[in-house]
Write a structure and sequence with these properties.
The structure is a homohexamer. By secondary structure, chain A is of the alpha/beta class. Chain A contains eleven helices and twelve strands. In chain A, strands 6-11-10-9-8-7 form a six-stranded parallel β-sheet. A four-stranded antiparallel β-sheet of chain A has the order 3-5-1-12, covered by helices on one side. Chains in contact: A-B, A-C, A-D, A-E, A-F, B-C, B-D, B-E, B-F, C-D, C-E, C-F, D-E, D-F, E-F. Chains C and D meet through helix 1, helix 2, helix 4, strand 7 and helix 6 of C and helix 1, helix 2, helix 4, strand 7 and helix 6 of D.
Chain lengths: ~290, ~290, ~290, ~290, ~290, ~290
Amino acid sequence: MNDLRPPLPLLYEPIVEAALREDLGRAGDQTTDAVVPADATATARLVARRAGRVAGLSVACRAFTLLDPRVEVDRRAEDGEDVAAGAALALISGPARPILSAERVALNLLGRLCGIATATREVVAAVAGTGARVACTRKTTPGLRLLEKYAVRAGGGANHRFGLDDAVLIKDNHKRLAGGITAAVRKALAGAHGLSVEVEVETLAELDEAMSAGATAVLLDNFTTHDMRQAVARVGGQVRLEISGGVTLERLPEIASTGADAVSIGALTHSAPAVDLSFELEPAGP
Amino acid sequence: MNDLRPPLPLLYEPIVEAALREDLGRAGDQTTDAVVPADATATARLVARRAGRVAGLSVACRAFTLLDPRVEVDRRAEDGEDVAAGAALALISGPARPILSAERVALNLLGRLCGIATATREVVAAVAGTGARVACTRKTTPGLRLLEKYAVRAGGGANHRFGLDDAVLIKDNHKRLAGGITAAVRKALAGAHGLSVEVEVETLAELDEAMSAGATAVLLDNFTTHDMRQAVARVGGQVRLEISGGVTLERLPEIASTGADAVSIGALTHSAPAVDLSFELEPAGP
Amino acid sequence: MNDLRPPLPLLYEPIVEAALREDLGRAGDQTTDAVVPADATATARLVARRAGRVAGLSVACRAFTLLDPRVEVDRRAEDGEDVAAGAALALISGPARPILSAERVALNLLGRLCGIATATREVVAAVAGTGARVACTRKTTPGLRLLEKYAVRAGGGANHRFGLDDAVLIKDNHKRLAGGITAAVRKALAGAHGLSVEVEVETLAELDEAMSAGATAVLLDNFTTHDMRQAVARVGGQVRLEISGGVTLERLPEIASTGADAVSIGALTHSAPAVDLSFELEPAGP
Amino acid sequence: MNDLRPPLPLLYEPIVEAALREDLGRAGDQTTDAVVPADATATARLVARRAGRVAGLSVACRAFTLLDPRVEVDRRAEDGEDVAAGAALALISGPARPILSAERVALNLLGRLCGIATATREVVAAVAGTGARVACTRKTTPGLRLLEKYAVRAGGGANHRFGLDDAVLIKDNHKRLAGGITAAVRKALAGAHGLSVEVEVETLAELDEAMSAGATAVLLDNFTTHDMRQAVARVGGQVRLEISGGVTLERLPEIASTGADAVSIGALTHSAPAVDLSFELEPAGP
Amino acid sequence: MNDLRPPLPLLYEPIVEAALREDLGRAGDQTTDAVVPADATATARLVARRAGRVAGLSVACRAFTLLDPRVEVDRRAEDGEDVAAGAALALISGPARPILSAERVALNLLGRLCGIATATREVVAAVAGTGARVACTRKTTPGLRLLEKYAVRAGGGANHRFGLDDAVLIKDNHKRLAGGITAAVRKALAGAHGLSVEVEVETLAELDEAMSAGATAVLLDNFTTHDMRQAVARVGGQVRLEISGGVTLERLPEIASTGADAVSIGALTHSAPAVDLSFELEPAGP
Amino acid sequence: MNDLRPPLPLLYEPIVEAALREDLGRAGDQTTDAVVPADATATARLVARRAGRVAGLSVACRAFTLLDPRVEVDRRAEDGEDVAAGAALALISGPARPILSAERVALNLLGRLCGIATATREVVAAVAGTGARVACTRKTTPGLRLLEKYAVRAGGGANHRFGLDDAVLIKDNHKRLAGGITAAVRKALAGAHGLSVEVEVETLAELDEAMSAGATAVLLDNFTTHDMRQAVARVGGQVRLEISGGVTLERLPEIASTGADAVSIGALTHSAPAVDLSFELEPAGP
């Protein structure tokens, strides 16, 4: 994963800060403020309770330093790395109060992002050797798309478009309103400034129409494996060919073996279970 | 669910609006703008593909009317209601472009909230007849806590504290830094303005100490069923007694039968799979 | 005041920054920019013109360092400390321009917070030896609740709830709409997630009803001293008992001697006069 | 007060909305949501408990309609009007929940603004017949300057500059750093784009120097009445002459009679006690 | 211009609202508030003083209705339409104060956007009949990219990428750091999720290398006309070919005749002079 | 330009940060992230391609350090300085990625501000020796007024009012609605708190009326040179006299020679062409 590029702090810090404000509320951490001495220091071990793929470690740990810049974060793993159950991901040390007050926000972010990366890794492993890439969709958590797309990359997957504005994807509802695939593709090629124009097709006939109209990518929706192979043959590498719909872990190897360029799976971001994390703190002073 | 109270628009509209901005990006919906005529109208059916508990229908559909106030939403189900697979949840009608451009945001919100409500309902059913309530935790998605807590209520569950500022919860790390349970509880009672003071305990001895110190609620962490029963007996209804840790669907009936007041389950909010939804649009004009 | 805990910078810095923007407007400090050389340095003494209790010194002085991180603040007093008229609270040194441009914001914040702390201290002194605490209310300045509640604590007072969401307080208007005290308390106990349920009562009969219904705290509104004593006797320490309404400095010792747990006084935050401060600057260079 | 102009909604609505969010917190009004039926309606009378000058009635009542546009506000008084103790200021009717949830925010704003207007009116009355105006300063509550300056106008007073950017005011600290009054005034006249250049002077000699240097207004700081008269004579109506420092209600008539154009009083905004208000609600259905 | 699609209100309203706040400052329109009666009504004619192409009429006129929803805007021209000098673009009627207070913001926006559309139209006319499109760049005014890109479309031009995230454009500095064109293109194809990969080339040799490496578009920078023709021949329609650098109005017809797909001109957005507008108001009452 | 004062970072940093977010979009700089190694370092020369006056160098270069505080900016010119074509304005060195990702934002800001300063300088030169100042207007780019007003000062010009709230300017539309010049001026003097009251006049008769009514400044709109001289004579230095309307570079010397105090030119901010800049980067490592 040596080319995994984390998002810019300018883009992700507002997410972490908003999460802290959401948890702290108006009055802040009543428990910690009441029971932990102001001068107490501590070191906490952030540990993965189950094996998984790491994603978002720096992002999540920014919660601690945003709350108090004196906290130090010593990362023991890197995004994109596989860790065993029980592995320490980071040591957090410094004043005890901010460490405790930021804990839940950090864990909520990290557990979710590692969960997505781990689920993605599993799916990527299932298509290994086929040349097909695994891609996520726009079915992300509102407010977290930047980070969830990144977690998919940390899991070895690829990102489809980031939003409604950076690629054209003509779906069933668009076709009906535009007056058919040909009309839709032509309007899109004329109207969208140099963006890729992908068409979701449900039959081989639709595929042919999309290709004729000039689509630059196609998405096969709910095709049989047989028809997928037909589609790959017809497209002949001219445009990107993706598959979506009804993709289960069991069917994946077969689907991927059809020669498609990518398989799109919404569940990577909307339904991956979080990775369970523990946070064990050792008092260190004063 | 006749007393289910949805959040105030003042509190949830910023979440919906931010989700729209995240999806629209700088340039807006390139596909719809390019291929759908400006004067096209349509009606879309929002359908649950699997059976589940509804939550967040008004919240999610606000995406359509925030984008264009001319869109009309005709709800066919209510939050807190159980629907069968294939049930129509709402009809969305009006100008076609905003309906299409807001679709994904609405579905992302609704799928997630219905997923949480559905998972909660299942757990609530498992404890039926025991007197124990099912509660969620602070393990929520950053930015969505308000809505996820509401979805838990729609599923029949209860909400634990909303954040770090509205209740004291003394956990293991706090105990160590405060110099033990007794010291921690006393500091909390003195320092926190009329908030409940709950202590997470790991043994019956800790339970006794928490009770003596004046805790107003206790959370049994990773107790055996046998010890849970002991704890319920010792507490004798004096304070609220909750259970957390290692709670599986299989163990739930037994756990709930111990007489505890509530069972806390973080997975309700961090790992519930989304409910799959479809959005079928019929052109209506111009 | 050794356990006085100031708010987190993450929570109070936006207030200070907004105050600076409000004062600087679009074009900034026209006077200072025009008449003070860019390289001038200075040291300013921040002095209390009358005796009082300090509150918000770090918060207020953050105005200087937010405007220019090169400014240094040397605090000569601590929040919660009593100072004599003429006492220096802090020395502010560094580049002269930001020191002058932030002066008014710092003084506006500090004068108000010290005013609240000083008024609170006076009231707290009046109940000394009675066991009753002095509490503030939600009658705070819009936008400054966090800081004003803190100033009350610096004055030796306690905070009642921070807002509408962290405790239930059933007042007269709620009773009427809910169908009486009993109905209101029962609904609140069922519907509010583990929050304290306090009832404002106007007669001993209402007190009895609130207790029977299960209220966890009561607020006696406009009781005579005689009835207060009756109420304390009836409650018998079972729930928290607070007093509000018609509380004057003269009546306070008598009220506090009734055995109530707390006396609530809105005027602490809505009508405390500001402490007068001076800001004397000595040029230091260049 | 027929030319009293309230601030634009675009400018004051963010203040009201922020105040609502501050009070509602994350989870909203737990009491009202739990105990008041969703379909209850009511009418509330907003009443002044003591006589005073009205200010901010529309601004404060915007809290109700921001929370729910179905609430109707029937104003029974106007800003700038004097009302007797017990006077109804407005009737608020509609759905009961938002009326109750916005009550405290509306009262906090209104009580403060009426308090400032009432204090100003009293001071204005004390200078009646002298030709001197009463002006406020920048000693306002952080975040509320727009509204507090308006309340002063509602009380019959005038506003001094709104902030650091719309007028030059050379104070003692500026003089020292600029190298004297003459240097400061000349720099200000050259550097500030057509703004008035006022100088705070402490002696008649300083007054002369300020006049010679070209100041367009002067502020006499802590002058004796005798020296004020001298100053008025020397200035001879050429520039605006204001008085500040040590202005008590007792001294006011004498000060105003010196012939000064205005008297500046910071206490109008930083220390005016709030006007006490009551909010009595009659259930109206369903 | 029948397919010109204006931006969504959700995306452009924040720009208009921020512009109003910038002009109104803290205290609002002092002139209008002081001299125009509160009940005055008026109708204003918004007129183009010189011939030009209209862009942003609805966007700019939103300033009036954002300030006061009672103002009515009667558009007399459409975006994308050419108007003669002296043409009325809109009639604005309603309460006089908000009409006057929003005038400058509306005119500032409209003058700039019409200026860009008019400049674009002129350039588009110069390439008429050649098949080449005119495109803008990222050299837009900070904060106004959405609107300026729209104005270019209203002028008949096309938009290049909206920002750094929706297309890859490998420029000279990237080549050097990536180790050459081939390395850069390959990394981009592998790393960027389905985006077009355009390369800016300075020689025909670079063009060849970019094509071999798999670029999906090329941008010829500062080519002679002779070399442009060579480039068009070599590319043979396989990828999009754009021209930039040294493009003057005089050279345009010749450049466009080379067969390139598009000509990129930064000056359309960074240096187009504003269209002069007048705003004549007729009092209408009361 | 030794007294040119740049805006406070607190006021301009939000503009730079918003510009970065606008360019980076959701996903950041796809080109740089994909093709530039994470550990690459570089030094870039920021060069003016044509001669001009510098303005906004620190402001624009803040884009680099906001994106990554490790970037170092070595300024080689100062705001208010004239530079020759080809002059290096700054060297930017450090990690290559943020340098490239912030380049366009920095250049867009700097090119525009230098363009305004350069245009202003040219106009200022044309009035040299006349005693007249050159002033800008409120015809600025929405969102950039602070910086554009500063660029005018860097060009040697003066700023007229910053917005609607810091000076009264009675224009033609105000006169009609107020019932004439005299009424308007009197209302303004009474209603606006110590602000200058300027009147735009179109005839000498209007000038006389404005003077009689007490205006503190006058703006001659579209006067002939002959009438300007008459106006200057009548005003006799009593109030500030400005000229606007139909001011071309050719007419300027004559206009300025009339003895007016200032000439207002809107085109300085709304139509100045940007200064062309180049950004040449040398790889430096790793």
